[in-house]
Amino acid sequence: MAKKSMVARERKRQGLYLKFSKQRAALKKIVKSQSSSDEERFDACIKLQRLPRDSSSSRGHNRCKITGRPHGYYRKFGLGRNKLRESVMKGEVPGVTKASW
Domains in the chain, start-ordered, CATH in brackets? Predict the structure, then answer.
């Protein structure tokens, strides 16, 4: 089980990302636009820098939905390797079978 503070921190980051995603996208569009003036680009850059760091999508980290484990995470299932194995053995994950050859 992961520390509850780490799981809470990830939830906070996800919330900030959802809150500021539209604003961040609009500012990035201004910065990348060739038609915007240098002043507009500079102002957009300053506003981007003033946004919270954790509102960036790249700051998030995938964690197991059950345990909060950050490593050994399978995107397709949203679980860590340990809990995925347990779920597969119980037959809770459809379409997955134990390999045998």
Answer: 1-60 (no CATH), 62-95 (4.10.830.10)
